[in-house]
Amino acid sequence: MTPEEIVAHLQEVDASFVERSDIQFGQASVWIPHHKWFEAATHLKGCGRCRFDMFTFMSGVDWPDDNQIEVVAHLYSVRRQHHLNMKIRVPRDGGRVPTLSGVWRGANWQERETWELFGVEFEGHPHLVKLLLPEAFEGFPLRKDFLLMTREAKEWEGREEPGAPDSSPRPGRAPTTTTAPDKGGAH
Fold it and tell me: pTM of the predicted model, to two decimals?
């Protein structure tokens, strides 16, 4: 199915599945309302035309101006070889999304990671505990309002430190040479 056909199919099955859609880079992105998130996912996996049998990844996008987190679940059909991005926006504080871990087992740890790094709760998740950070860690490191400790200790202007030698080798840059190498020819 083409990206346009996937969006049209979802709208035919249930017009309320699609709040809006977008097609970029050969992939469809569909914004799903909260009350249809689980139902749309179940349809996409079980439908013979779609057959989205692989939950590839999930992440979030912090939109501080809107005070929202956008959750993005990328789906792939191994048999049909097409992609879909399911998207949903939730409030930054107290945002909740129904879990998809019962639909795709691969969603389990990715929902945990999204919860841990963005603070989005997944309703009905069987084991929502931290994966990457220590239990005592506070905050959500992938939100744009999370303060980096290095910036708290010392402000960085984005320039090299004063007095740093210009000729010192830096990662990704070849060291400078001042003499021509000996070619080993006639003297």
Answer: 0.76
